[in-house]
Design brief:
By secondary structure, the chain is mainly β. Among the domains are: about 130 residues, Alpha-Beta Horseshoe (Leucine-rich repeat, LRR (right-handed beta-alpha superhelix)); about 100 residues, Ribonuclease Inhibitor (Leucine-rich repeat, LRR (right-handed beta-alpha superhelix), Alpha-Beta Horseshoe), CATH 3.80.10.10; about 210 residues, Alpha-Beta Horseshoe (Leucine-rich repeat, LRR (right-handed beta-alpha superhelix)). About 10% of the residues lie in helices and about 25% in strands. β3 and β4 form a beta hairpin. The longest helix is centred in the first third of the chain and has 21 residues. Bound molecules: 2-acetamido-2-deoxy-beta-D-glucopyranose (NAG) (12 copies). One 2-acetamido-2-deoxy-beta-D-glucopyranose binds next to loops. One 2-acetamido-2-deoxy-beta-D-glucopyranose (NAG) binds next to loops.
Length: about 675
């Protein structure tokens, strides 16, 4: 609707050229930006078509009226981003301060300004925006603006679209959304998602009678929803999720005629699910989970013919499911989540009527019996059923699904082997089977699953000494095989992108492997409670010595530069603690306890500036605990043969005695 308006309003080609002061303002903006960008990165070409010799109405991202005044600036994502990381998060190469915008505030004819996705830092320049009184459309999402929303924005009464989502807005000084928000009478969309805003929503919100979309998702707003919400007759989507709103949900919401989506999840609303919901004729999305609602879950919910997404139950809820109720749905749900609702018996048969369903979450109920075939046969992409008592074998049919993306059966009673055809489920990205009674070997075909990112088989009875090798095309980044009966050598044949590897509580044996060369992204390595033996000093030689000899740094644990957590406790590893541990520059937690380490703790551990947890207890260590850096604040030295040092208040032989007697120190000294 808005884009239609702008197409009618703006003509990029015209016989007039833009006013010199507007051109100058734009060139000023460009030159400041170019100077910052080229001094920080190798890319200097932003806004390449902004050429001083041509009409600014012909420039890219600029639109003018027929008579040649600038009305639109489409400046989203003009600041270069570094590569998108594996999680899809774009990290900017650098941050530019919000005062870069200053020249633009001279262009008072602006009706549309889009500066989204630029990671600008600092406060929103209120005085400047106060100049842009003709603004109809203002998009500032995905920057890093902080501080309060400036009051000048609330004077831009022509605004129809305002998006300030995904910033750091919010201050402790005043209510973030004061009564002045009521001035924005023409506003149709107000998006303030994911900021730090707090306070109450003022009654004056009811003055925005043209509002069709309103979201304050994921802020710190509290209090009741103002009763004036009843005036927002045009409202189509209302998203108040992830705040601290309280009390009963005002019934007036359910009388708004055009509402299609209501998300009130993640608050502390109380009371029953309002019966007036059943009168809503356009409702497609209803998300009420993670509140303190109580009473019986009404079966009429499934009679709302327009309903496509239903989320109820969840953390803290007191809703009760009537297990005797006979449900014949009139809706066709795509997404259904009823977690912690005390649903018992078999997975309800009526779910099989929901042919379009692609997401089913019935976590933390009392479901029993085998997984019905209709779950495996449908279009489900996400099957989330942890914390139930489902049992019997995992059906073969499940992995023939072309749709399956995420499967979570954690904490149930499934038993038997993993189906051999698991490798058919080509799209699967996350597989959680922890805490069941599964046994046998991991089927080899699992290594065909290149899309798999998380594999959690922990706390079962799997065994075998061959862990299928995932090739370099694999996206696996987290593998948890802990607390099974795996044996043989520690497997290291994982793809390069591996981040988290949990192998503890098995019976892996042999030496700690030397060759970790490939796993340069590993952040967590947990192989505690196995049967690993050998002299670590032989497998991980002292780097300094070898560098004299061969000139090469040997592959070793010291290569794992990304490592944040290393746990090799509860094994039978002997020898000295290698000096190369001092190369684990990102390590935060290092647990070597309950082994047979001897000799002294290497001085190189002082280099570990991120270290917050060190446990070397229950070994045979001797000598002085290194002093300096994080080592000064560490504990976890108990039950060794003869450690000394200020950390354990034992004076070392040869240390200068501090002034005054240190009681008992002499007797404990080694
Ligand atoms: C510019 O490129 C050179 C060579 O490609 C590179 O070494 C340097 O780090 C780059 N500078 C910036 C700031 O990206
Ligand atoms: C705005 O200008 C761009 C060229 O910079 C053009 O592609 C676009 O169609 C124009 N938009 C309108 C609404 O005129
Ligand atoms: C507002 O626009 C006028 C006219 O271009 C200009 O003189 C003034 O400096 C602008 N104010 C701000 C705060 O940018
Ligand atoms: C906003 O961020 C800037 C720089 O990132 C900082 O200097 C300033 O103190 C912050 N202001 C507020 C109100 O948090
Ligand atoms: C509700 O939607 C219809 C159809 O889009 C529209 O004609 C009507 O004006 C809307 N009602 C209100 C109060 O906005
Ligand atoms: C549904 O709407 C009808 C007619 O407007 C009304 O009489 C009835 O009370 C409403 N039911 C609920 C539960 O609000
Ligand atoms: C949950 O359901 C069981 C029967 O399956 C019932 O005995 C129990 O009272 C219910 N708990 C709650 C909190 O409703
Ligand atoms: C695990 O499964 C085996 C059969 O494979 C069965 O004998 C055993 O009782 C099950 N254990 C539990 C705790 O359910
Ligand atoms: C260590 O791994 C690399 C890469 O996989 C391989 O080329 C090399 O031969 C291995 N070295 C040893 C000693 O196994
Ligand atoms: C642990 O290893 C030792 C020798 O390597 C072997 O004798 C013992 O049986 C192993 N224990 C287990 C539980 O595998
Ligand atoms: C030290 O050893 C004693 C005796 O075996 C044990 O009771 C105590 O828990 C151990 N301390 C730690 C920190 O492991
Ligand atoms: C013009 C108008 O509708 N003003 C209203 C704005 O909101 C406040 C609080 O709800 C009302 O008191 C005004 O009448």
């Amino acid at each position: 609707m808005l884009s239609v308006l702008f197409i009618l309003n703006s003509f990029p080609t015209s016989s007039f050229s833009c006013p010199p002061h507007q051109k100058q303002a734009l060139l000023h903006f460009k030159s400041t930006l170019t100077a910052i960008i080229s001094s920080n990165s190798n890319s200097s070409s932003v806004l390449g078509s902004w050429n001083p010799t041509s009409d600014c109405c012909s420039w890219e991202s600029v639109n003018c009226t027929r008579t040649g005044t600038v009305t639109e600036l489409h400046l989203y994502n003009i600041i270069p981003y570094s590569d998108i990381d594996p999680y899809g998060i774009m990290t900017p190469i650098f941050h530019i301060r919000s005062d870069i915008l200053t020249p633009l505030f001279h262009i008072q004819s602006l009706e549309l300004l889009d500066i989204s996705y630029n990671s600008l830092v600092g406060e929103i320049p209120g005085v400047g925006f106060g100049n842009l009184t003709k603004l109809v459309y203002l998009d500032m999402m995905q920057n890093r603006f902080n501080g309060s929303i400036p009051s000048q924005l609330f004077r831009l009464t022509n605004l129809r679209y305002l998006d300030m989502s995904f910033n750091l807005l919010g201050g402790k000084l005043r209510p973030e959304l004061g009564p002045e928000v009521g001035n924005l009478r023409n506003l149709e969309y107000l998006f303030l998602k994911v900021n730090l805003l707090s306070g109450k929503i003022p009654e004056e919100i009811g003055n925005l009678t043209k509002l069709t979309g309103f979201s304050v998702q994921n802020n710190h707003f509290f209090g009741v929803i103002p009763s004036s919400i009843v005036n927002l007759r045009s409202l189509e989507t209302l998203d108040l999720s992830e705040n601290s709103f309280t009390m009963q949900i005002p019934s007036s919401i359910w009388t708004l005629p055009n509402i299609t989506a209501v998300d009130l999840s993640g608050n502390t609303f109380t009371g029953p699910i309002p019966s007036s919901i059943q009168n809503m004729s356009k409702l497609e999305v209803l998300r009420l989970h993670n509140n303190m609602l109580d009473g019986e879950i009404p079966t009429w919910l499934f009679k709302i013919t327009t309903l496509e997404q239903l989320f109820i139950g969840g953390k803290g809820n007191g809703l009760i499911w009537n297990n005797e109720a006979k449900i014949v749905p009139d809706c066709s749900l795509q997404l259904l989540s009823m977690t912690s609702c005390n649903i018992s018996g078999q997975i309800p048969e009526w779910i099989s009527s929901q042919k379009e369903m692609n997401f089913l979450d019935l976590s933390n109920n009392k479901l029993v019996g085998r997984l019905p075939d209709f779950i495996a046969k449908g279009k489900l992409e996400l099957i989330i059923l942890p914390e139930n008592n489902l049992e019997e074998l995992i059906p073969l049919l499940l992995f023939e699904s072309k749709h399956l993306l995420i499967l979570d059966f954690s904490h149930n009673n499934f038993y038997g082997e993993l189906p051999k055809n698991i490798g058919y489920a080509k799209r699967i990205a996350r597989l959680f089977l922890s805490e069941n009674n599964l046994s046998g070997q991991i089927p080899m075909s699992i290594s065909n699953l290149d899309s798999l990112r998380t594999l959690d088989l922990s706390k079962n009875r799997f065994f075998g000494d061959i862990i299928p090798a995932f090739g370099d095309k694999s996206n696996l980044d987290t593998s948890d095989l802990s607390y099974n009966n795996f044996s043989g050598n520690i497997p290291i044949n994982f793809p390069k992108g591996m981040r988290n590897l949990y192998l503890g509580g098995n019976t892996f044996s042999g030496n700690l492997p030397v060759n970790w060369t490939k796993l340069i992204n590993l952040q967590i390595l947990d192989i505690h409670e196995n049967n690993i033996t050998g002299n670590l000093q032989d497998t991980l030689p002292q780097i300094q010595t070898l560098k004299a000899l061969s000139g090469e740094i040997p592959s070793s644990l010291g290569n794992l530069k990304a490592l944040k957590l290393l746990n090799i406790s509860h094994n039978m590893i002997s020898g000295r603690i290698p000096m190369s541990f001092g190369d684990l520059q990102n390590i935060e937690s290092l647990d070597l306890s309950h082994n047979e380490f001897s000799g002294s703790i290497p001085q190189s551990l002082v280099n570990l500036v991120q270290l917050t947890i060190l446990d070397v207890s229950n070994n045979k260590l001797t000598g002085k605990i290194p002093v300096g850096g994080q080592m000064d604040t560490m504990n976890g030295f108990e039950n060794n043969t003869g450690l000394c040092g200020m950390q354990i208040k034992v004076t070392c032989r040869g240390d200068i005695q501090p002034l005054g007697p240190l009681k008992g120190a002499d007797e404990k000294q080694s």
